[in-house]
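Render this sequence as a predicted structure.
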Amino acid sequence: MFPYLLPTYSRADLAFVRGEGPYLFAEDGSRYLDFAAGIAVNALGHAHPHLVAALCDQAGKLWHTSNLYRVPGQEKLARRLVENSFADTVFFTNSGVEAIECSVKMARRHHFVNGAPERFRIVSFEGAFHGRTLAGIAAGGQAKYLEGFGPKVEGFDQIAVGDMAALKALDTAQTAALLIEPVQGEGGLRTVPAEFLRHLRRLCDDTGMLLIFDEVQTGVGRTGKLFAYEWTDITPDIMAIAKGIGGGFPVGACLAKAEAADGMTAGVHGSTFAGNPLAMAVGNAVLDIVLEDGFLEHVRSIASYTRQQLAGLIETHPKVFAELRGEGLMIGLKLKLPNTEFVATLRRHHMLSVGAGDNVVRLLPPLTITEEQVREAIAALEAAASDMESQA
């Protein structure tokens, strides 16, 4: 269907030409309610006027200079991220997986400069997704992503979430860090219990391992806090973010405590495009909105309303839906019928969603969604569920 593109995506035969708030408009003018948000990327919806103005203003001034020079937008965005998180320092990237790569390198380098180069192994958790680079798929550990790419990159191990015996058996003398998503996105919207995260923090404190949070999908308001770790009483040492911080523009970042970043000195890591003036203008514009008084309160309120409505939907259609998962506006519907078929059926009712592991459908609306738009989504989900039941 698309002869000049590498066929690595299973694309729907649907092209969008314009967006406005939570809506996308196809080539034929038809409107779709977007509860996919570019896979949790378009945190403020489409064509948000503040983001558009910031990007256009910067585009008329300067696009790129490289990191050979100071970039004032980086300095501003880094300061704001530090002031609103656990971190002392920030490295900007172009994507989530680059932020993960920086996190892994930072953890290994920390132990190297502190006299323990043998501590390079990274422990992640079954069901995780940490991106598509060779290190990213090794960290994720899922066979379907590893197949055909040669030997798995050395130094990555997986254990099950909640497996205390496996944690106790860890060879901490070789382990640099634990890497975990507070809510597994691709893995099926599985929330990691707060007590387990607190146990990981205590284990790292006791052994000198670093704790890395992958908040690429949960970060920047998606769970109702700026970052998901804020729902616990702990902080990570390193955190990878992306997706929402750019509001649709490619931006990522690795945030860290100063001690964890002590090995990241001049020349050990870098990027040509990362932190460019365009990206920084948009990232700062996103924070302008997300940090406004009342914005995160709105996310929590509309998330509660949405989840109440979805609970009723599940009760009404027990042959289609099994359970509700996730946190905030990072919502998962566990299905009893094939999730791929449900996503396609929902699309016929002009609503967009995203599949996930464990036969889950992800609902990832813009954080600016309203109750009226939630009711519109429930009506589409209701129609799709009825269609699935009639075909079963």
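Summary. The chain has two domains: 16-34+293-391, 50-290. The mean pLDDT is 96.
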